[in-house]
């Protein structure tokens, strides 16, 4: 089990109600599932997460299955919703 920090940006921060929170999980999928459960599976939060991009320890997750993205102890997950502009 790894422990680290999830950081939420823009609409994800608003939906989460916090700029960051700790994770205690092996995979990115587990960390995000725990974050959803913590909020009672609040539909808006789950909806925002479904369209977000993720960066784990400075590396984009891209289209990889979140179950295969391993988290490191002391690591950071950045949760980035889509945004407009340039």
TrEMBL record:
Gene3D superfamilies: 3.10.20.30. InterPro entries: Beta-grasp_dom_sf, Mopterin_synth/thiamin_S_b, ThiS/MoaD-like. SUPFAM superfamilies: MoaD/ThiS. It comes from the Bacteria. This is Thiamine biosynthesis protein ThiS. It comes from Carbonactinospora thermoautotrophica.
């Amino acid at each position: 089990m790894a422990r680290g920090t999830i950081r939420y940006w823009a609409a994800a921060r608003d939906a989460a109600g916090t700029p960051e929170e700790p994770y205690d999980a092996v995979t990115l999928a587990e960390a995000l599932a725990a974050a959803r459960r913590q909020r009672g599976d609040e539909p808006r939060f789950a909806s925002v997460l479904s369209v977000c991009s993720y960066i784990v320890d400075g590396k984009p997750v891209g289209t990889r299955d979140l179950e295969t993205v391993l988290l490191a102890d002391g690591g950071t997950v950045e949760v980035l919703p889509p945004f407009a502009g340039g």
